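Hey, quick one: can you model this chain's 3D structure?
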Amino acid sequence: MQFKKARLSATHTFVNATMGTAVLFTLAACSGQKAETPETAPPPPAITASVDLPAVWATRPLRGEVADMAISSGPGELLAIAYENGPFELFNLEAESVGEPSNFKIQSLGEGHSASIDGASLTIFPAATARGGLKAYIYGDGLVGPAEIDLPIEEERLVHGLCSGEGGNGLFRLAYWTRTNQTELKTGLITESDGELNWAPGTPIVSDNPITACVYENDLPRVLQNSSDAAPLKRGAFETLVTLSEAGSLALSADDLEADRYISLRNGITVIAPAEPDAIAAIGHPLSGGYPGGLIVVAGETNDGDHQAVFVDPSALTLSAE
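Sure thing. Here's the predicted structure for all 322 residues.
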């Protein structure tokens, strides 16, 4: 059966009808004997190096626990927040809610990308839904809230997680793995032509161990196996990963196998950082809203059961490398 190409129209949308705008847009326990002596199972070396970064701003209390977050690049940067049980909400970099929340249930978000389609300025966030589908969520001209469209990827198995990167000759690069094959990262490029989205598959990446996260670095996808979440932080010659462990600890790492430095978060006068973040996002280049050194965003429980997205200034890292 021939695969029908995805059209640039939303499956669920908040488009203002009067504008009539057509828009695009996851210790395996060993079965052997327990080690009896330190010589047979030496403990990992303690890592004491750390970097202290200030929490400088925060959203109001959120609607609940965060499943994933992503930041868009380009003009009008946005922070996308997917809650554990829905909805999906956008914020600007002043931590203000943008548009109306949409009741989509999303488990994994890719980096956001800016595009101009048929004269409309839009921001696109690729995502894997809670049911394992591949979608894109868009916001921009003619929309009063995020809208959902299908991605043209013929995938019969449920998608477990994904990441995205700048598109080069397309809208954006995309990589994902499925629940039934967690050791293969499928890659490709999403393009648009004459109102249709297209998928150009790339070369899969095979991992020795189950994939827990992925990121794009220098336009190339990278498999991670020890972090529950990760985000690249790059500015000029400075390049690292901000990683989040299952236990909620933040670290800087070149490869997510061993932390180079732990990150400790310093509370502001009125800003409380989560002790055990649930999700992270990061971007290294200067951003609007007073972030010359880029931005790290961490989400989690902050105080009295509230969940917030907290903005962290990484300038001590990114600007000191210049």
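One thing worth noting: Residues 1-7, 12-47 have pLDDT under 50 and may be disordered.
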